Amino acid sequence: ADAASAAELADLLDGTRVVLVTDVEAESSEAWAEPIHPDQLAYVIYTSGSTGTPKGVAISHRSLSNLLDAVGDVIPMGSRRRLIALTSICFDIANLELLLPLQQGSTVVIASLAAQSIEQVAGLLEAQPISSVVQTTPSGWNSLLAQEWLSPGSLALTGGEPLPIATAQALADRGMQVWNMYGPTETTIWSSCGPVNPAHGVNLGQPLWGYSFILKSRDGAEVPRGGLGELLIGGTGVARGYLNRPSLTAERFVPDPAIPGGRLYRSGDLCRIRTDGTVDFLGRLDDQVKIRGFRIELGEIQAGLLSHDGVREAAVIALDEAGGTKRLAAYIVADQETVTADDLRAHLSDRLPAYMVPATFTFLSAMPLTANGKLDRRALPEPERTAEADYVAPRTDTERTLCAIWQEVLGLERIGITDNFFELGGHSLLAARFIQRLRDRSGVDIPIATVWRKPTIADLAEQLTPELQSGQRRPTDLLQGWLNELSDGDIHA
After folding, report:
1. How far is CA 413 from CA 387, 404, 406, 409, 416, in A?
2. Is the separation of the CB atoms in 178 and 159 below 8 Å?
3. CB atoms inside a 10 Å sphere around CB 251
4. Which of 17, 188, 258, 394 fits a disulfide with 400 by CB distance 3.0 to 4.6 angstroms?
5. pLDDT digits over 262-299, tens only?
6. 185-219 tens-digit pLDDT
7. Cα(451)–Cα(421) distance, integer angstroms
8. Distances from the Cα of 140 to the Cαs of 12, 92, 118, 345, 411, in angstroms?
C-alpha cells in the first residue's frame, strides 16, 4: 500500500484514520521486524468462568496461528467475502473477527465504528452483500432476529453459549448458513465447529485441525465413544495456563497420557462423542445443582422450555432459600403473548419429573446481556413470590379447606382462590405435603401432577368438589389423619 491508497481507503471508510506501517517510527518498525518464536506470548485475556474470580488466560502465537489456519481451512473466507466484526475486544472471539479476514486477504468491517445500538447494527448488516460472515453469540443472534434483520446467503457463526434449535431454525428460515462454534477461552477461541441443520438438532461439530477431544468419567477413567463424560481438550490450541496462578493451572490443565509433555484442558462440559467424531453438548458440570436431595441439570430444564413452540429464549437458575435450601426460577422470552406460566408448567410436567419444574416463571421482553453478548445471570430480576394484589376470598367449603391447607404448608396468612401455588413459593416437596394433608383430612387422594396442572385453589376446587362430596373416609384414613395432625404432617404412622 502507498499514501494514495491509504487516502482512498480513508474516504471509503467515511474519514476513518488509516495509518501506513511505513509511517510508524523507525524504532517501532525495527522491533516489529524481530523474529517471534511460536511459543512466545501472543496475548492474555481475562475470564471469570464459573468461579467469578478473573483469571488471565495466556495464549501463545502458535495456538493463535493454529486456530486461524484451522478455521480458515473449514470456513474459507476468500477475497470476495467480508466479515462483520460485532464483538467487544474484551471477548476472545473478537480476535478471530479481526485477524482471520486479514490473514486470508478478505475484508473486515468493524460494526462498532458505524453502529451504537442493536437497531443500527441490524441496519448495517442488512446493507452488506450476501457474501458477508457474521459471528455472535446465540443471545446476540436473538437480539438481531428481534429487529427483523434479513440477510439471505450470509454465513452465521454462533458460539459462546448453547445454540437453541429455535434460534438456528430462525436463522435458517432467513436463508442463512449456520455454523455452530465451540471452545473455551483456555483452548484459544474455538476448538470445534460444524454446519447446523435444525431438522437434525444442534451439536458441536467435530474438532478443528490440531485439536483432540477425549471424555473422562468422575473417577478419571476414559469414556468410550457413545458414553457421557467431562470433555478434555488437547492439542496445539491449549493455552499456557493462567497467568501467575500455578495451582489453578495445575488443576485445570492436566497431563495428556497419549502425548509426552502434552496437556489436556478440563472443560467442565458434559458431552458425548459419537462414533463419527461429532460431539454432543449435554450441559455444564457446574450447572448441576442439588435441590431437596435431587441432582438437577439446569440445561435439561432449559431445553424442555425451549421445546415449547411459544418460547424463544429461556434461562433457569437456582436461587438460595432460607434454611440453606434452593428453588428453581425460570426466565422466559416468549414469541407469543398468550404463553403463560401455567402453560409452561404443564408443558414441563409432561417431560420432566415434578422436582425439575421451576417454582417461578418470569417473563422478560429480552434477556439481559453482558458486554460480550452472553446472558447476564446476575442481572436477572428477583421473581415475585407474593399473592396476587386482587385477592379473591374462598366461596365454598372446598375452597376454604384447600386455602387452609395451603396456608399451613406455605406459611402464609392469607391465600386467595386465584393465587398460584408455585408462584407463592411452592415446589414438589410442599406439593407432596399438601397432598398428604388433603388425604388425611378428606380421604381423597390425588396425583402430584394434578397440582402442576391445577395450580390455583379455584381450579383445584372445581375438580375436587365432586370427590369431596361423595368420598367416604375409611377408618384407617381417620386414624392416619389423626396421627398426622398430632405430628403436624411431618411424621407418618
Report:
1. 10, 9, 10, 11, 10
2. no
3. 11
4. 394
5. 999 999 998 999 999 999 998 777 766 766 556 677 87
6. 999 999 999 999 998 889 999 999 999 999 999 88
7. 8
8. 28, 15, 9, 27, 42
Instruction: Give the global pTM.
Output: 0.61
Identity (one letter) of the amino acid at 33? A
C-alpha cell at 433: 405435603
What span, in angstroms and rounded, lies between the C-alpha atoms of 115 and 113? 6
- Unique residue bearing C-alpha cell 487516502: 7
**Number of neighbouring beta carbons within 10 Å of residue 199:** 9
- Residue owning grid cell 502434552: 262
Which residues face 288 on adjacent strands? Answer: 297
Question: For cell 432449559, what's the residue?
Answer: 302
